Amino acid sequence: MIAEATNGLEAVGKAIELQPDLVLLDIGLPGVNGIEVAHHIIRVSPRSKILFLTEMDSRAVIQRAVRIGAHGYVLKSDAVRHLLPAVETVMAGQQFIGPEFDADIETGASTPRSKLV
């Protein structure tokens, strides 16, 4: 099943209701930002994997997303090349950080991180 939410609070509600395998989020959501939404979704739907698809390319934001439990991070400008590999990697239980970010992003992840070029 595929569902869509128009804002962060609605996304959290849908996560509670649907318990999705994968949640694709933007950082810049109306109302509550995507990092906070991801934090709430992880609490209410702990088996859901969070993949950010955003234009926010700040290393600090990426590190914060990973620290709260996000499984992947892809820039919208790279979606054509990297979104499908990111989804496949995340659904396989690994972490995907877009290749435009070098290895100095501290993930603290216990699973391998995919880095495609």
Topology of helices and strands:
Elements: H1 8-18, E1 22-25, H2 34-44, E2 49-54, H3 59-68, E3 72-75, H4 79-91, E4 95-97, E5 113-114
Parallel strand pairs: 1-2, 2-3, 3-4, 4-5
Helix pairs in contact: 1-2, 2-3
Task: List the keywords.
alpha/beta; 5-stranded parallel β-sheet; Rossmann fold; 117 residues; single chain; 4 helices
Describe the structure.
The chain has 117 residues and is α/β, with parallel strands linked by helices. The protein has a single domain (8-114), classed as Response regulator (Rossmann fold), CATH 3.40.50. It has four helices and five strands. It has helices at residues 8-18, 34-44, 59-68, 79-91; strands at 22-25, 49-54, 72-75, 95-97, 113-114. It has a five-stranded parallel beta sheet, with helices on both faces. Strand 2, helix 3 (59-68) and strand 3 form a beta-alpha-beta unit. The longest helix is centred in the last third of the chain and has 13 residues, at 79-91. Residues 108-117 have low confidence and may be disordered.
Chain-averaged pLDDT: 87
Helix content: 25-40%
Residue windows where pLDDT falls under 50 for at least 5 positions: 108-117
Proportion of strand residues: 15-25%
Radius of gyration: 13 Å
Tally of individual helices: 4
Overall strand count: 5
Strand order of the largest sheet: 1-2-3-4-5
What is the distance, rounded to the nearest whole angstrom, between the alpha carbons of the first and last residues? 31 Å
Could you give a short account of the major beta sheet? 5 strands, parallel
Give me the strand/helix succession: HEHEHEHEE
Report the CATH C-level class. Answer: Alpha Beta
Q: In the CATH hierarchy, what is the superfamily?
A: Response regulator
| Outline type | globular
CATH level-3 fold name:
Rossmann fold
